[in-house]
Design brief:
Mean pLDDT: 79
Number of domains: 1
Strand content: under 5%
Largest sheet: 2 strands, antiparallel
Amino acid sequence: MMALGRDAATPVAGGNGAPLERLPVPVVEYLNRLVGGDARTEKMVERFIADQYGAKNLFYLPSKVAGEIIRRPADFLTAAKNYSEPELKF
């Protein structure tokens, strides 16, 4: 579970009190354009990144994962949809 920092807006890692690294806003906006869509798809993506990478939203994705999403967005969306609804093959 993620704790909040002193200003109640800065998430902190584990128990060491160090702020989590966030992706830059332009990168997150670009990711959102790539993987965003209807509300259903966005919820699938949010659930997938939370379960697979421990990120509560696109800001907290590991930079290597963000780079791979930018490189192959269709594969990422397929993986997220298959994770969320395995009975339907996308």
